[in-house]
Amino acid sequence: MQAAETTPPQPTQTSDRGSVLAALVFTFVTNIDMTTVLTMLPVAVFGGTRVAPLTFSLALSIQVVASLIGGIVVPMVFRGVNSGWMLSISALLKSAGFVALLATVHPPGLFVFAVLAGFGRGVSKVAVRVLLTDATVEKDRARAFQLFFVVMNVALLLAPLAAEAADRFHVARYALVLLLLLELAGGAWAGATARRLTSDTGKAKRLAVGGGLGLLLRPGPVAVLAYTLVAYFAMGFIMAMFLLYDEVNPALSGYRELFLSFEPLALIVIQLAMMPVLAQTGRRAVYAGAAITCGTGVLLSFTSSLVLVLLGLALFAFAECLALPQSQVDAGKAVAKEQVSAMLSLVTIMSAVGEMAGNVAAGWIVRNADDLLPSATASAMAVAVVVLAGFAAAGYGIDRAVSAREVA
Length: 408
Prior knowledge:
Number of strands: 2
Structural class: mainly alpha
Order of helices and strands: HHEHHHHEHHHHHHHH
Strand content: under 5%
Oligomer: single chain
């Protein structure tokens, strides 16, 4: 009698939870480490001295440029390197920068820190996003990136508190040693865990420069990059405007610290409360909602009413919850699998460029608004209208491009 034919069971596609956890842990560690150090430098005493504001500003600019270079170099130089190794390399670079600070906070030690830590930051921004994309199946990817932004904002919320405590208790150098050890441990553990992801897509492919630049000629990637640019412009703009709030809105300047802390706190609360809903929201609704809430949020954030400012910041946080996870997911959908690392590298570059442009725009408006509009707040509201239009146009472009690829 002939044996019955059997079909072997097909493996169920599931996300690699260990690698996702590694990405989230590393995100928390590296953000709280870097933000704490950058917050301490202008105020805390290291070896009997503080970093002068102008010197710190120069070092911060060097760090941003080094981060940009790191984001560009990674997908072009490394071939077949698992994202886990990239996380470990990033941690080593930042730790080496912390060692330079322990030697001296005067130049050139400060600038060596800026270069090493900045480059490490650029490497990690690409590696973490590639790892999250590769470690998750499509149905889990939006939620993974939502968690990514929650974890990042928790770190950004806690870092200033850690910096203030280190300064108040005069333990800045000891805190720096602790952060260095935390960075090394986090990078080693996360890297080792992530290296279990051995699929082809888990490796950063080396792409020719022309291949990466060729993405700029296609509507889908261009729409994603434009969306990233507008989103991070808005984030940089609103943060810089509130840092300069004494000149922007003197009537409410006493609430500046409240405003700076309220937005990341609101983002965390909204993200956690609405994560199940946001994960199931359609792409078109996400982009439309992000445009409306971001533009309205920026507009209300520069009114003269305390309640309206807080409402505006809450709406802006809601827009971040909508926009950033979805755009990260669609960055991977807008290109072929072998181009994902190059696409995410370009996204990283656009995020840095957008944030810097937002900072510059805020400073320029505060300095020159009286020559353009009645006040800096009126100019900020005009920017809100431009941001809303940019979000709407880029979101529409992403929806059309990704929908076309899904149909094809």
